[in-house]
Every structure is written in C-alpha cells, then in structure tokens.
C-alpha cells in the first residue's frame, strides 16, 4: 500500500506492507530511528510520536492509519539544529534521562501533555505520563523536567 504522510515537515511517500506498524514505517522507510521499539504492546511508550498534534503509541498503529497525516518524531521537535524544544532543554537541564531509551517517547508524551495542560501540578504530570515507562526509574527528574518546561512554555506554577 502507498502511505503518504508529512513527517517532521517533510512529505514522505512509501510503498509498505498493509501490516507495517507506524514505528516500522518511521524507522525503516523514513530512516528516523529516534522512535524506539520497546515492547510492541503499547505498555512502555518508547514509541510515542505526535500524529496531527496528538500523542500516539506508534507500535500499535498501522502506517496506513497515518496516511495523509502529519507525524512529528523526536528528530523533528527542535525548532532548529542549534536550538532544542523547551521540553528537550528541560530534560537536559534537569537530568530527566538516564540510559535514554525511554527519552524520545517520554519527551513526545510530555509535549502533548503540556499542550493539553500547560500549568500542571506534580501529581498531574505523574498521571499524564503514566503510559510511559522508565526502566531506570528516573521519574523524579522526568517530572521535574516537565514542570520546568511548563514554566518556560508559559505555564507552570
């Protein structure tokens, strides 16, 4: 099947098997390996990307379901090659990563969460990111990073 999407602002069109998952499409057809495959069951969130501005777990979605849509991956989040997105910057400043495997999905989920809740409490951040797992248990710093990003993006308490 032919799948045509806009990925990180660039038009993409690829012929794929109908059962190709969105994460496979991004990694293999588009060559964007920042999106990770962690569990294949939507349990960990390492594969989280934005589809038309909403966070989705790309390991449980077929590429054909994204046909005609706009996908943003971790590679396309920063506004330029020399500037990070506020969430990425906050993860860096607050040490919101350890091994880094969960980081792309965690950052993408946080971006979507902050769009919906720009002024979250710590508890709301923890609940908002509960679908993304950190195997290194770096949750405290991740939560602090999201709160820091909220403040920089105009929200924050």
User: Widest sheet: strand order?
Assistant: 2-1-5-3-4
- Strand content range: 5-15%
Q: Any low-confidence stretches, pLDDT <50, length ≥5? A: none
Biggest sheet overview: 5 strands, mixed
> How many distinct helices?
5
Please state the second-level CATH architecture of the largest domain: Roll
What is CATH's topology name of the largest domain? Ubiquitin-like (UB roll)
Order of helices and strands: EEHEEEHHHH
Distance between the termini: 48 Å
- Average pLDDT number: 95
Report helical residue fraction.
Answer: 25-40%
Structural class determined from secondary elements: alpha+beta
Please report the total strand number as a whole number.
5
Per the principal axes of the C-alpha atoms, what is the gross shape?
globular
CATH domain class name of the largest domain: Alpha Beta
Q: Total domains, how many?
A: 2
* CATH superfamily placement of the largest domain: Beta-grasp domain
């Amino acid at each position: 099947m032919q799948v045509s999407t806009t990925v990180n602002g660039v038009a993409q069109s690829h012929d794929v098997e109908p059962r190709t998952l969105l994460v496979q499409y991004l990694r293999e057809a588009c060559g964007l390996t920042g999106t990770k495959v962690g569990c294949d069951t939507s349990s960990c969130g390492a594969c989280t990307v934005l589809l038309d501005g909403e966070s989705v777990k790309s390991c449980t979605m077929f590429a054909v379901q994204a046909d005609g849509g706009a996908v943003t991956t971790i590679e396309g989040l920063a506004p330029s090659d020399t500037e990070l997105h506020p969430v990425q910057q906050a993860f860096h400043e607050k040490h919101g990563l350890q091994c880094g495997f969960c980081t792309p999905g965690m950052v993408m989920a946080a971006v979507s969460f902050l769009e919906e809740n720009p002024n979250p409490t710590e508890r709301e951040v923890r609940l908002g990111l509960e679908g993304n797992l950190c195997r290194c248990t770096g949750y405290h710093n991740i939560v602090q990073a999201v709160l820091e990003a909220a403040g920089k993006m105009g929200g924050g308490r």
